Every structure is written in C-alpha cells, then in structure tokens.
Amino acid sequence: MITEKVKRELVRMFGRGNILDSDEDRISYSYDGTPILGSLPDAVVIPSSVDQVSKLMVLANEEKFSVVPRGSGSGLSGGSIPGENSVVLLMSKWNNVLEIDKNNLTAWVEPGVVTGKFQSLVESQGLFYPPDPGSSQICTLGGNVAENSGGLRGLKYGVTKNYVLGLEVVMPNGDVMRVGGKNMKDVAGYNLKDVLIGSEGTLGIFTRILLKLIPLPKTGRTLLAFYDSIAGAAATVSEITAARIVPAMLEFLDNPTIRAVESFARLGLDNNAGAVLLVEVDGAGPVVEEDLAAIETVCKKSGATSLRVAADENEGMKLKAARRSAFAALARVRPTTILEDATVPRSELTTMVDFINHTAEKHDIQIGTFGHAGDGNLHPTGLTDERDRAELERTEEAFGEIFGKAVELGGTITGEHGVGLAKKKFFESLYNTPFINMMKTTKQMIDPNCVLNPGKIISVSPRCEGALPRSREQIDRILSKMENPSEAYF
Amino acid sequence: MNHISDDLLTQCMHCGLCLSVCPTYALTGLEKSSPRGRIRLMKSVMEGKLPVSDVFVDEMEFCLDCQACETACPAGVRYGELVESARIFIEKNRERTSLKVFILKNVVVKRNVLHFMARLVRIYQASGMERATLAILGAFHNRLYKLVKQLPRISDSFSINTIPTVSEPGDNPRGTVAVLTGCVMDVFFADINRDTVDVLKENGWKVVVPKDQVCCGSLNAHNGDGETPKTLARKNIEAFEKTNADYYVINSAGCGAFMKQYGEVLAGDRDFSERAKKFAAKVRDFSEFLFQTGYRKPTAHLGKPTVYHEACHLVHAQRVSIEPGALVKDAVGKDFRKLNEATWCCGSAGIYNVVRYDDALKLLKRKMENIKESGAGIVVTGNPGCVLQIRSGALDEGLNIEVTHPATMLNRLYKSENKDRDGGAS
Are A114 and B20 a contacting pair at CB < 8 A? Predict the structure, then answer.
C-alpha cells in the first residue's frame, strides 16, 4: 500500500477530486480487457498537466511506489493492470485533438483521444489515419502508441509505428523529453521514438503525440467469400498475394466465429460455412474495380462456394463492424474468451491454423480462430469459463504449444496485443537471450527504481536495492555469486 | 430474487466496447459509471468484497437503464436485467422502502388513485394555483421550481374512459388488435392513445381497448420492485386474452419492451408461464406493427423539417430501429432530416428525469444541441417519456419545436388529406 504520507502529498498536488481511492473506484480500475487477470490499485490519479505527471514520477521515485498509465483499459495483455503498491495514472480525460496540419498532413493529439473519433474527424476533412485496432471505438491513441497497435488495415497500411512522427514523453525520472517532429526524414541521433513506441507503458508516459496522416482513399469495396473449409480460404490468401494485389483488409473467420458474429450482428452470414474471407480494396475508382474483379476470380478458382459484394459503403461498414466484434462475440459461445495473437509469416498460415485446431482437439478445449489473414496475424481464441479451473489450465497449456509453434515457424507470440502480463512467461523462454538482456538493460537504465509500470513484458529488479557495494571485495563477492549475470542487478 | 445472477455477470468479458455508447460514462469519464464498471461492482458485492455502499447504490441509480450498451455488446450481456436485479437487491437490503418505490407501487399502478391524483393536478393546473406556486417556488427553490414547471398538462379526459372498447374499421377488417392505454399515457397523453386507435382503424384493423387492463409494470421493475410487476402482468394477460386479438399494439416504448419480456417475468409461474410466452409473442410496438403489416402512406405533408429520435426502449431494449425510422422517413418524405446521435438517451429514462433531475438535464442539453443542429421543426419519437422530456427541453430553450408521437404524426397527415380533399371538392 502507498503510505498515508504519499496519499496526502498526492491530494496536495492534484486536489482531492482528482485522487480516487474509494473501494468502488479501486475495483473499477483493477482490470482491463484481459481475461482473468486483475488486481487493485491503491489509488487512481487524474492529472491535468504535463508538469503534474512529471512531479508524480519524481514523487514515485522518492517514495518508491509505482505508476501504471491507463487510457480506456481495452488492452488485451494486461498492460494497464495495476500491481502492488501502485497508483493508476488515468490519461483518458486528455482527449483533445490539438492541431490538424493540412500543409504537412500531420496531427498533434493528446493521448486520451479515442482512435475511432480521431479517424472520423480526419476523414471528415478528406484525410486518413489507417491504424485500425478492433477496439477503435473505445481505445485511445496513447494506448495505441504504447502497444504499437495493429488492426485490420495492417496489411496495406502498416501499424501504429508507421504513423507516429513525434512524441512528448514524461520519462520515469520525471524529465519531459521530446522526440521527432513534422519531418518525413530525420536521422539526428538514435531512433529513440521507436524504442518508446510499443514499450507498453514501461519506458515513458506519452503526453502529446504527433501523427502522420495520408489522403483518404477515393473509394473502397468490400467483399465476402465463403468456403467449405479453411484450406480454401488460405489458398485464396496465397493466390491474392501471388497476383500482386494488396487489399486494404484481408480478414478471415472460422466457423465458430462466423456463428458467434452472426448471432450478434445478424447480417445473414452463412452459419454453415467452414470459413469466410472479408476483403476490402480501396484507392482510385478504376483500380478498385479492377482489383475487385481479380479477387473475385481468385476466390472462385480457390473454391469459394459463394461471394457477396457489399452493395454500398453502408453495408461495407456493417460487415467490417461485425468483423471487429468477433472477439467479444465469441463470448456468446463461452463467457471467458482468451484471445491471443500468434503471428506467422503469411506462407505458414495454413500450417498454423491446422496446428491450432489439432492442439485444441488434443487438449479437449474449444478454440475459435479469426484474424488478419493477409498479414499472418491470427487470433486463436480459447473459449472457456473462468470458473472451470481445470479447463482453464488445459487452455493455457494449449496456448503454450501454439506460441512455441508460431516461433518455430519464424513467427511471433504477439502480433499486436503486446506481452504485458499475459504473455510474459512465454516471452522470456521463446526469445534469444541477448535480445531479452538488452531489453532488461534498457529498462534498468531508463527506470532504475522500477517505478513505471513494473513487471510488464519482463521482470527486472530495481537497480539500487539496499546500499551500493563500496569496496572492491564487496563487488567481487557479488560478481562471484552471479551465475547468470542477466538475472542480477549491477 | 435476492441475488444477481452469476451467469449473467460472468458473461461480461470486460472488453470495454460498451464505454463508447454509455451516456453516464460520457458524463463522468469514470469507469464506475460505465456498464463494465457497474458489472464489476455488482460482482464484487455478490462476492462479498464490497458492501451495498452509498457509492454502489448511487451508481446503480445513476445508470439510465437505457440499454445502449446491450446494443453495442457483442458478447450479449443482458445488462438491463443485471441493473434491474441490482436495484431489487438494493431495495431488499434496505431497512425502509424508498419513496420512489412507494409512489410507484401505490399511485402509478392503481388506476383509481392515479386518476384521482391526476384530477387534482388538473384542477391545480386549470386554476390560478399553478402560477402562484411557480412564482413562490421560483423565488425560493430553483430546482423544485424547474421540476414543478416541467409537470406536463393533464389530458382533459382519460383515454381509458373515452375510447370505445371496440372500434370497427368498416367492412372486412384485416384482423383484431388490442391496445394498451397505459398509466402515464392514459392521463398525460390521452390524445396519443386516440390517435393510435384512429390510425390503426384507418389501416383496416379492428381495435379493442380492454377496460380491465392495468399498468404494464415496467416502472416498478426498473426501480427495484420485483413483485408488483408479476401481479400486473398476470392481470394484463387475463385482460388481453379475452380480446382474442391477433396482436397487442403498444405505443409506449417502455411498456412495449417490458410486455415483450412477460415470458421471462413470469418464467417460474405455474399457471402463467406458457400464457405469458404466448402473450409476449403477440406484442408489437406501434411503428413496428404498421411497418411490418403495411400501412397506407399519407399523401399530405407536414411542411416542416422532421427528425426521428430513437427511444432507448425501442432501439436498444426492443431492437426496433429500422421500422420506425423508415416509417417516419417514408411518411414525411422530403421533410425528413437526419438527427445526429439519434440513439443517445434524452435523459427521460422512465422517472429518471424526476429522481435525478440534474443528470437528466445534462443529457437533455446534448439532445437539444443535436436537434438544433438538425434544423428540425418537428421531433417524432415513440415513447411518452421522451416526448415530455424533449418538449421541456424545447420550452427551456425557447425553441419553436413540436414533439410528437408517430401515431399523432400519421393521424394528422391522414386528417389533413381529408381536409385537402374536402377543400378541393368545395
């Protein structure tokens, strides 16, 4: 628990109304979108200036408590779940778009701006911000940068990091750092901006974000292709790639997912289809029509049993919205959905999907799979009930094997949700030691007291615990104890 | 029921997709005022980790029960049921019945008492007393002044007494429908009830108004009283069954939503569970019914920009959105305008605008901004509460905006057709 002294100091700094420490508030900030995980913060702090955030970090270092930044709490790896002796730093009220620069095609935003609202705003001005996480209606841009969120349009347009030009960041020691700017080219110094993007709230707190915008594509068409089996859908994905077409979206749903989505969205999807592909092409009119025709041909050739082209933009929007709901819709099957994001090179898609289904069968669990077929980013989702401990354990075991396979195929354990707490134990065991060590070194260097979102991604101990060794003998003694230098602090 | 269902609570997988549509979360920006947060609080109370604290009670009452979150929830969480059972749980764990529940139980649902009270108010409104009261309150108590000023006009006569029990449309009726005149509708909106009957008749339906019908029970159910609604549902089932009607047409969204749920309300009832299911299957909202069975499109025009405000208990609780939207659009033709945030609660929410006046006012402001932006001269909406609320918003802002029910809109269009015809003939 944070001490009464710290609480008094927080109240003095932020005002009573901006420190929430009732049981009800602590309970309602004890979780995010991640299943099962959760723990109570000691308080929730609502800052109103960069200076306040900076002073909070200074206090955290002095008084040794930790700070956990949070936007809307829609994360899926536990990145914003508070640990012991921590306060939640609520950034969701910083929701102003500060500038849209039409000459440079950039926008300055505060971190609490909701992604979907920002997209609507820039689109109303003929501009486009492509990163499109499934939770875009609620997730915040700050959270997107922290997680380097991907989404449905990753295949053609890339992910969040491709659209971040600059950041204003409060560092763990309270320093306010600025990196990047409106330049499309900038090689002055290390590319620290990209170290911060995707740092999952462990290296700094974003207080202002400079984003890159592009012109809004002139038209878009959406198509659904139904298949008897997953194999046909996977073949289509390879064929589309081979045909040198890059759709804006190339999404895939398996049968359990189709059923769940249909039960929520009632779009008239074929409940008996083995798989469906949702394809969107966008760009200038003639090119779009040409690509659409080519894709239709490929789909039919690869065994699509039926095709449905959205009549207008409205229908296309509905189909895409339904796809975004897939993860939560699966909760209709079983209440606890363990959504993962194992990602493989596109060519390994079929192998991976087969392995997932085989593993589910082996462990006698249910997995619904959907995902961004175009970029190999799958969402195998364990369908279980958190009240059934045994099944939960089997699900976890199955996912251990699935992650192992993904890495073996040259893939990754997480394509877009981050490691956070949920995948921490798989992370260290599946990645090479120098990489893990460099991450730990970086964290220890930037946040020596481990006060900013500790325990996420990797575990490191505070650099200074107790008195520093002073004599040569003391140092030698410590060094001789270290079997694995990466595990100890230095 | 003295607990909140664990299965319903577990169904929430806390993805947070409800946050973007929750009006109270938009007001505070705090998780505890969101559906996801409230569900977590209920879970904590059920697990004994949190007492039935003041903050907990306040959050359950702050919720509008608009159920916008249910529409947004892909996981299919039945949030309305959750918050309603939380309110019942709170009432059960209170030492005294709250005034709110007492009034609903002893005034609203008892027709004699309600009519008596309404007559008193009518006398008060007709005499000079209203102005005197407002003047006094205006000087001393601003909040009470506003509340009292908001009190709508009592209808000159109550519809249950003036609408004939059976109205025949002429030769070869298409079928028989039974109409609920309601409790609030009956005393405040007798005219909407008459319009409802007229429009149904005009479209070839034989209309029956069962005299022994009672209040639907929704206001009690939404406010922490689990038992009264069951008694009312049984009485209504008996009253409506006697009509042998093909459909039961309801012109108030809140009542319609609840009557469609009679099957669940009386699920464990030995004598009534099957009858309740059959009853619920016959219930249709007024606009839904006309749209589905087909209706005669009026040839006259309203001549003013018209928007459709989607009542929460239609769009979210009943998932009836396309039908009334299309009906209004089709009926008013070129006068139709788009209303932004049409599905966002206006703050009426049953008796919410009385018990949580300040919060309701904030929501009303947001609604009025959107209405102003649309340039509407007429707002059509399928729920009496919304009609009252938006009317009072227009009054407060000095706007010349009519707020009306689809039934009144259609009846007026039909009537002005006749006038046009008569005018042309003479």
Answer: yes
